[in-house]
Write a structure and sequence with these properties.
This protein is of the alpha/beta class. The chain is about 35% helix and about 20% strand. The chain has an eight-stranded mixed beta sheet, with helices on both faces. Helix 5 links the parallel strand 2 and strand 3. The longest helix is centred in the C-terminal third of the chain and has 19 residues. It is globular and about 50 Å long. The protein starts with a helix and ends in a 12-residue tail after the last strand.
């Protein structure tokens, strides 16, 4: 895939990296990523996926901006509370790089519509705020054979994991959390608090891992790290990695 001169110049710092190169940048331009949630994780992840030239971005969120979001959700501005997050996220991307293709999904993801939302994706990056949606998305990814990056953050801790439950021997997100959370939401950051920069670290790390997964075919950035859960500690600061085993009784991926 030949890139026009202005795109070559824009992505020159990627292209000189031997781990990416022209072929890797072309692969990013042809990729489709579905971003579930445009909050504290989704905002910085979106900025770096757009910055990396990911060609098609599906922006999924049913919420409107609240003034309390501005402390960590970096694509929104004063004067925008009350407006749709997907509308504003699309506007941000179009002003940043009008070449990228954008699709908006402004309704809540459920078990009934998750398959439609992720259709045709090369990767789903889920940064939503409740387990029921996360499990619905994970199950749909397994069924559609789409890899999933799941990211979460609270207080001074974050986590980012790559799941490919459709592959033999690999765990899905349900293998990690089990079935108990299908109807239960996570604790609210309004109750527990959150350092804004912690959301930024988690979201940008998720963006990095997304690029790793999208380039796995070329091998430029190495192993996609399926089944690895990275735990980020903002107080230490430190990061450690756990391996998630496939659950042989998992109702989503065991069969």
């Amino acid at each position: 895939m030949a890139m026009p001169p202005d795109r070559l110049e824009r992505f020159a710092r990627h292209i000189v990296l031997p781990e990416i190169g022209g072929a890797g940048q072309a692969a990013l331009a042809q990729a489709k990523v579905v971003l579930i949630g445009l909050g504290g994780i989704g905002s910085p992840a979106l900025q770096y996926l757009a910055g990396a030239g990911v060609g098609t971005l599906v922006l999924v969120d049913d919420d409107a901006v609240d003034v309390s979001n501005l402390q960590r959700q970096t694509i929104y501005r004063a004067g925008e509370p009350g407006r749709s997050k997907t509308e504003l996220a699309e506007l941000w991307v179009r002003e940043f790089d009008p070449v990228l293709e954008i699709k908006r999904v402004s309704h809540r993801v459920t078990r009934d519509n998750a398959t439609e939302v992720i259709a045709g994706a090369d990767l789903v990056l889920d940064g939503c705020d409740n387990f029921a949606t996360r499990l619905a998305v994970s199950d749909a990814c397994v069924a559609a054979r789409v890899p999933l990056l799941s990211a979460a953050v609270g207080r001074f801790q974050g986590q980012v994991g790559a799941f490919a439950g459709h592959l033999p021997g690999q765990a899905c997100y349900r293998c990690y959390v089990g079935d108990a959370f299908d109807a239960d939401d996570c604790d609210s950051c309004a109750e527990d608090g959150m350092l804004g920069a912690m959301a930024g670290w988690t979201g940008t790390f998720a963006g990095l891992q997304a690029i790793r997964v999208l380039l796995a075919g070329s091998g430029g950035m190495g192993d996609p790290l399926w089944g690895k859960l990275h735990l980020l500690d903002g107080l230490a600061p430190s990061m450690r990695t756990l391996s998630i085993a496939k659950d042989p009784a998992c109702k989503a991926c065991a069969t």
